[in-house]
Amino acid sequence: MNRSEIIDTAKALGLSPNKKLGQNFLCDAGTIGKILGAVGVTETDSVLEIGPGLGALTEGLLERAGSVTAVEIDAGFVRYLSSRFAGESKLRIIHGDFIRIPPSGVFTRAVSNLPYYCSSEVLFKLAAEYRIPSVYVMLQKEMAERIVADPGTPQYGALSVSLGMYYRARSLFSIRPECFYPRPDVVSLFIELSARDDLRLDGDGLNLFHLLVKSAFWGRRKTLAKALADSPHIDLDRAMVIGILREMGIDEKIRGENMSVAEYTILTARLQEAIRAAN
Ligand code: SAM
Fold it and tell me: N or C: which terminus of the chain carries fewer CB neighbours within 10 A?
């Protein structure tokens, strides 16, 4: 749908875009085609779409995928989609809040023009609840840049590391505000997240990992050992951290922003062992 078709459809449905629910609809056919091309869905794919809205991406996904499960919070759009795609056996439409009730199922791809107010919650929910090999999402550019950032760059932070534990992230292309109705104030970036299975931590290890990352970036201008020892989030002995860093062949003066995701994972596992041994 182009801009005027979206306006007419919303009017006919008695709906108007709800800013609080991040309703900015794709209205540029070229961009929709580019997204579908990048996602590269085939008949063997079972796709999870979060926030289908008026179905800008859903239609093309249905043409290509084996099945599509679309979760939409807005009852008005659920009614519209149910009637627009009536009789479409490959589509399962779920009315609900994806963050509160993520649907069950095994999916090979997730695709979303994410509502920006809850982007990071959706991404962490996807990471925690599923093992989806490829996730494609549209995000506010600044947030996307933090997710794809490499160690040592200004954008690299807690978000890059904590999400980096689950996915390798790659920036695909940017999308101008004019490609949406209503026009958002920000530029968007479409990114690909590929599930990684090289980094493994158990439940307690994962909790420790997230606390370490939070602490490391809380003390951004400090050395990692000092940031962890001074952190209000965790109780760690500085000498223990320095000892493990040395064993790992890492300079004890390293700052959190220069540690890779893999290094954080190893540090977590070794700290877990040291804490267990000390108790
Ligand atoms: N996919 C459509 C498109 O690209 O035109 C709509 C994208 S719009 C940015 C985000 C959509 O997510 C809206 O339809 C909104 O109602 C829906 N949404 C917002 N919060 C949600 C949530 N917690 N769970 C499911 N859907 C949500």
Answer: C
The three-point CA angle 59-60-64 to 5° equals: 120
pLDDT in tens, 63-90: 999 999 999 999 999 999 999 999 999 9
Q: Whose CA is nearest to atom 21 of ligand 1?
A: 73
Helix, strand or coil, per DSSP, at residue 137: strand
Q: Which structural domains are found in the chain, ordered by start?
A: 3-195 (3.40.50.150), 204-278 (1.10.8.100)
Q: What is the pLDDT of residues 150-199, one digit of tens each?
A: 999 999 999 999 999 999 999 999 999 999 999 999 999 999 999 998 88
**Ligand 1 atom, smallest distance to 27 CA:** 5
Q: How many whole angstroms from 25 Cα to the centroid of ligand 1?
A: 9
Task: For ligand 1, say whether the CB of 52 is within 6 Å of any of its atoms.
Answer: yes
